[in-house]
Amino acid sequence: MIQTDFTRFLLWCLAAFLSGSIPFGLILVKLAGKGDVRKSGSGNIGATNVMRAGGKALGIATLLLDIAKGFLPVLLAKSFGLPAHLLAFVALAAVLGHMFTPWLKFKGGKGVATALGVALAYHPLLVVPSLVAFLLLVFLSRYVSLGSVVAGLVLIPSAAGVFGPRFYLQAAAGFDNSWPIVAWTILAFLVIQRHSANIKRLLQGTEAKLWGGQKVSKDA
What we know:
Layout: H1 2-20, H2 24-31, H3 47-54, H4 56-79, H5 84-99, H6 112-122, H7 128-141, H8 144-159, H9 178-194, H10 196-204
Helix pairs in contact: 1-4, 1-5, 2-4, 3-4, 4-5, 4-6, 5-6, 5-9, 7-8, 8-9
């Protein structure tokens, strides 16, 4: 029974990784006849760079699909009864798929949209503190990267229950609640690490703003 459950868990992780690995931004821009998004703007395959390369409609479509490819596998695993302490690692697998997609030589995006998708499926209220922090910082600073980094940091105490029991998914009786925190902490720090170039530019004062500001540079 234990071996069967572990095999089922690994299959869910694999399915989530493969779902997360679909490079929708690259596909949509190519289908629209706009070339390779990796050769435009920052070279990133995420929604922001897709918008620069292919326009607002493609950018929005990429955003929604990147959210969905994280949301669906976690929601399905949850609906089939996978417990919270394992479900958190399925969520992590989907984001890893986006960041290290095998179809692009294990290169990928920054994982923000996919992280939002997996968090919404895991426990919708989990994202509320992070979303508030993101919107507030972007509104005040106009730096999407700063909002994304802080939102990732806020996700950790949210998963740990610091903001109250409504904002985290408790593990079933008999299971250690620390495992979901481990998974969400890894996920958050991966998202932050993917923004290392942005953090460097923020410190230098050269980061591009959401509207106005500096010209977009490589790895934005």
